[in-house]
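Anyone able to model this chain together with D-serine?
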Amino acid sequence: MRLKATRRSDPELYGLVEEELERQQNNIEMIASESTACEELLELSGCVFMNKTTEGYPGARFQAGSQVADKMERLGIERARALYGAEHANLQPYSGSAANYGVYAAVLQPGDCVLGMRLDHGGHLTHGSPANFMSKFYRFVSYGLNAETELIDYDELESLAREHRPKLIIAGGSAYPRLIDYERIADIAHSVGGLLMVDMAHISGLVAAKVIPSPVPHADFVTSSASKTLCGPRGGLILCKAAHAKALDRGVFPGSVSSIHLNVMAAKAWLFKHAGTEAFRSTMLQVVANARALADVLGQNGFRIVSGGTDNHIVLVDLRPKKITGKVFQDALETVGITVNKNMIPSDPEKPSVTSGVRIGATAVTQRGLREPEIERIAAIMTRVAASPEDRSTLESCKEEALSLISRFPLYPEVPLA
Ligand code: DSN
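re: yes, here you go
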């Protein structure tokens, strides 16, 4: 990439960036939370806004010299609101997790009850996992999936809400491949005097492109990171109803963040314009088509697809019919140049470091231009690897095929690499 100064002053570090670029170029990247940042995002993330310290909100800053930052933050907020049809937007959270903390800071008191989806059923660490420090402050109760359909068990969710009367219900997660009935969960939350927060981190690009239904009309708060299907920089955002705007802004600053990462905010502001284009929509439509093609072919080849398919960018695969674990499959695929992550399947008998499944995402490969024919070839490679994860000659020939496939789709076709 264009790291000319770094190349001169720190060849060692420059070498690592080059090495990572080469890794990304030569591998088929299918981690569901990843995407490829375009040149504008790389530029803006490193622009001079990085030099400016500012806290507070436009027109009410704690540091002088924030006039331009004010204009940029206002522009980003307006673009985010327009993109999602939201009444209010806050772009200051440093990440999707920090966005969730911002909402908690806005509406919860220590000891309050929160109802979120189980991590091993597709939720997120910040939605109530005992491993996350939020569980020290709030009383998290978890709902999960119906054992047969592997869809959210809305009846269980409702009865837990009636029993515990949570102040906040959280919908959304990291490994849920299906659509969510936001209206129903909002009704449940409001009927027990609570609020609904939807964490749409994984699907916010698909929502922006109107490829899947939006939680915005139904949820009191919607949180997201920008770097998953939204294909943006690593940062967070929160949308909310106007009635919660003041509380939310206080929950974010001074509640849970301090000085703003203005450089990343500038990249977000660019993104919110770009994500409203036809080009972005057509990429998102293809993301879903590619994920469906992957689920179909893997299913035909003897893998069990959790919930029977996908409505978004995620395919969650149960490997037990193949008699291998998530760890073995992830490692074997890495050897051949396909990057996925091991993932718990619902009610997984294995521990999180082993797992019975993998989670596969279609976003980054779709950005590179892969369509159904290439996805079918990837599924065929995955099938061969699953059959012989320790056979060196199988892995060698799969590696050659994966490299020859991905080499036809440059990661940065229009960017000079030096
Ligand atoms: N939860 C991680 C993931 O989905 O990969 C990142 O937020």
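The pocket of D-serine is lined by residues 33, 96, 124, 174 (CB under 6 Å).
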